Model the fold of this input.
Amino acid sequence: MPKNHRIRAYLWLAFIFCTLAGAQYFFFLFSFHQLNPFLITRGLTFGSTLWSTVLLLAMLFGRAWARYVLIAWLLMAMVGFGLATLMMNSQSIGALPQPTKFALIGLALYAMALTPLGISRSLRRFLAPRTAGGL
Done:
C-alpha cells in the first residue's frame, strides 16, 4: 500500500475518532439531562463509547470486519437515540429544545462519522487483506 494511501486512511480514522468523541459528548449531555426520563440512554451512551473506541482500535490494527461492525453499531445506536428522543418529546406537554438539540447534534455527528466509513477508498484499501499480488 502506498504511503499516501496509508496516511489518508490514518487521517480518516482520526476524523472518525474526533467526530465520535464529539457525538459521545452530546449524547452524554442528552442522557444525563434532568428532563430525560429514560435511564437506558445512559447505558446506551456508555456502551456506544466503549464499543466505538474498541472497534476504531481494531480498525487501526487492520481488522476489516471492525468497519462493518462499527457501521452496524452506529446505525443501531442512531435508532436507539432517535427513538428515545421521539418518545421523550411525545410524552412532554411543552417543547424540550435543549435535550432534543443535544440528541440531534449527536445524531448528526454519527452520520458524519458514517460517511467516510462507507465511501472512503483509502480506508477500504487500508483494511483490505494483504495479498501476494500486493496492495
Notes: The mean pLDDT is 89. The CA atoms of residues 48 and 113 lie 13 Å apart.
